[in-house]
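Support request, please re-run this one:
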Amino acid sequence: MSTRSVGERIAYYRSVARPRMTQQHLADAACVALGTIRKIERGERGVSTDTLEAIADALGIEPARLLADRATTQSRVHAALPALSAAIAAYDLPDDGPVRPLRMVRASVEEAEAWRLAAQYTRIARTLPDLLPEALRGFHGAAGAERREWAGLLVRAARSADAAAYKVGARDLSARLIEFMRWAGPEAGDPLLEATTAYVRTETFFAARAHRPGLRALEVALDATPPPTTGAATAARGALHMRAAVIAGRAGDSSAADVHLTEARTLGDRVREDVYCGTAFGPDSVRVHEVSVAVSLGDEHAGRALEVARQWKPPTDLPAERRSGFYIEMGRAQLWAGRADAAFEALKVARRIAPQHTREHPWVRQDAATLRRLKRADAEDLSNFAEWCSAT
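Re-run finished. Output below.
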């Protein structure tokens, strides 16, 4: 392996992936043009850091494994956490430095949002430690409407940073980033952004297993959210109801879960599936959450998840993080139903859609470890998967 070029390594890891990936599969998963993949594998062009990381993410391996002169290193996300922490620690006194025009920073924030929705956390980790201080400098140097827009960008940038921190288990940093969002949100003067922050804040309740307080917090946020008179306001309320249904399910409150899920369905039917204020919402997202609620409630409710899966699959234009989450939930439902093979297939589909999201998900580790103990067929494939996600 050590004598191979980067392109040869990519081709090798693509060929041994399970399920095996074609060049088209890799291009789709990495959000890279098919022609680019072909040229890289043939050695006809070099590979930028961005492209290398995207390809490694799609293959579910560390970028260093594709390079001849580097051993496998600590995750780039983990390596970026101290810089992210420092960025928000100095939120009131950011270091001096350049500030690009507002339109350019806005484009960078939008790019980070796209990476978050695609579960490309290493890209976020490399960019946000510089982007957050730059946006803080812009915010502190602005006034009026421009200052409010900078504040909105801070909320959106912090949300992307939080996604990377939360997914790799940095719960304390995630909580600090959410508090940062709660500080910046009122400065933006946009109640829909505050609804978005309330949606994200639920992570802290999930992490603490404080499900009933989390449900109360979401219900308070719903009371403060503008009425659904526009598409964005409808989506903001619907997303909060989706989140409330899931945390009610985690609390074992099936009645509250049903109420919030019904509200989410009603609102979801009023808008087309899209990303609103950084959150995917619409009929398909509600369907994904219906499965999540059923799995959260467990026991006799888990059959509902299997029933949904028999009739529906998330469309390919749904954000990768949302789609992979569906298959992770389905893996757990299949496992509970005693269908080990189907559970493993669901986890492999989740990995193929969003490798980083799948690898860092605690349920994936738990379920892979359980499958490894239960199964004997395809032992090598299952063992490789379990080692990939650090299942114990």
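Confidence is low (pLDDT under 50) at residues 69-74. The chain has four domains: 1-73, 75-186, 190-312, 326-392.
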